[in-house]
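Table S2 (continued). Query chain:
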Amino acid sequence: MTAAPLLPEIRLEDQPSAESARAFFQRDRLMSAYALADIDAAEIERARWWTATRGDVVVACALVVEALPFRPCFATGESEALVTIFRDGIREPRVVVATPPSGRLAVESVYRFERVEKMHRMAVSVATFRPRVTHGVTRLGPDQLDDVIDLYGHASRTYFTEARLEREIYFGIYIGRTLVSAAGTHVRSRLSNIAAVGNVLTRIAYRDRGMATTVTSAVTEAALEQHHVHGPFIEGPAVRRSAWDRILGRMK
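Corresponding output:
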C-alpha cells in the first residue's frame, strides 16, 4: 500500500503584515494590481486582508476595501485555502468579488454570485503604449468634483471625493462648461509601481468621436510617467450564503 504525504494544515491569518500579503500578490502583479495598490493605501481605503498558509508558505490571500459601501474584494490562491478565508475570515454580508476563474468555486462555497462577468484586462508599458489624443483635455482635481459627479451620476458621491480626485489621476473633456467625457485611475501605488486605469465614461450625445480614447490615453500617459501600468478574471457582486444553503449546495 502506498499513500501520499499529508499536506500541512491550512492556517488563517487575519491582517498579517502588509509585506507578506504584498509579496504574495507580487507573484502576479498584473492580476493583482488593485490589491497591491489597496494594501499600499490601507489607511486611506481602510483595506483589510487575510492570508492562508500551509506551513510557512502563503498559498492564498484576499483583501476587502472597507472604505467603499459596495465592499470590493480581491482574492486569489489555492482553492481550498480560499474556502478557508471566505468561510472563517471575511464576514461581510455582501461583497463585489474579483478573482481568477479558478477561484470561483471557492467563493461560491460561502457566497452566492448575483451575476458573474468574465473580464479581460489589458496591460501596457512605456514600450508598448501609443497615445491617441485628438481632443483638448483638462486635468480634473478637487475643484472639478461637482462636474465629475454630474457626469458619473449622483450615486457616485460616495465614491468621488475631493481626496480621491487629489490622490488619483483624472482627465476630462469639456464642451463649454459641461464635462462630457472622463477617465481616471481606479487605484495606483508608487510603492508597488503600478496603476489601474478605468472609470471611462462619455455622455451619450458625444460618443463615437474618439473622446473616450483621448481621455484614456491622457490618463495612461500620466500614469506611465510615475508607474509601470496594468489578465482574465471573474468579477461580480456576491451575497453571503446561509449555512443551510451551503450544506444543500454541497449535496447537489
